[in-house]
Amino acid sequence: MINQYKEQLKEHNLKLTDKRLKLIEVLAGDEKYMSAKEIQSKLADYFPTISYDTIYRNLHTLTDIGVFEQTSLDQEMHYKIACVTHHHHHFICERCGVTQVVEYCPVEKWQNELGDVKLNSHKVELYGYCEKCA
Amino acid sequence: MINQYKEQLKEHNLKLTDKRLKLIEVLAGDEKYMSAKEIQSKLADYFPTISYDTIYRNLHTLTDIGVFEQTSLDQEMHYKIACVTHHHHHFICERCGVTQVVEYCPVEKWQNELGDVKLNSHKVELYGYCEKCA
DNA sequence: TCCTAATTCGTAATCATTCTGATTAAACTA
DNA sequence: TAGTTTAATCAGAATGATTACGAATTAGGA
Ligand SMILES: [Mn+2]
Ligand SMILES: [Mn+2]
Ligand SMILES: [Zn+2]
Ligand SMILES: [Zn+2]
Question: What's the rounded Cα separation, in Å, for the pair A55 and A20?
């Protein structure tokens, strides 16, 4: 499954660096939203001196090509590995960031209600505490 | 209608200051999400030296008591006057921040789908360009 | 192996937001 | 109305996330 991400990098002419691969590994290994700080602390096990510039740059780059998805929580951007299957949304634990899939999305009803206005995107996020954190 | 906000301040033992009243006036006068910077530039007409501390403090305070509502756009918190009628969401213009009401909200379907997990809150935001900005 | 553009590094800068300690003023009381 | 109390404001420093920059390194192709 990591190979699929290597593909995506190649498709966009991005080099396969050790930092990028480990970054993907970290996010792919935990289905939750993580802050840059959390991510750097996980990467620090492998690259103790990795630059924040590298982390932020790659979070942006990989979000741009659809490997990650992002959301703003508590004034900080958080990232998770992207869901590539079908359109859906997430429940997000406000304590630990862990996510749970939410299938139902009435985007066509919303588009109907809006009429002419063109919908570029939409955000649906459900918040609460996961079973562990409750 | 400004009187209703004065009530709310009194109910929470908050003083009626000139800054607070003008802040409410500014947000109530334009049904859109505004950043702290935008807000301070509007307030500057009346209070050229108003402190950012005053702006941020009051944005928080008034959001806490339900006078304003907030959302994070582009890494910046944005505020608008709260909708006090019934539960609903908004379409938000990505250029100018103007909002349009979206009535349909399937929160009970989502709660059903989630089962046990307790839902604390939810965010639904539809993005695009308003007629003016399109 | 060599070249070159992309990537990373270390660090400084930026920008939104928060904090602090001193000053002001709203609201209550006499 | 004057006095008292305490919340609110102010100016400016501090914080914390994010971005920028010039120099050094490296992936990937020739
Ligand atoms: Mn998902
Ligand atoms: Mn709703
Ligand atoms: Zn949790
Ligand atoms: Zn607009």
Answer: 9
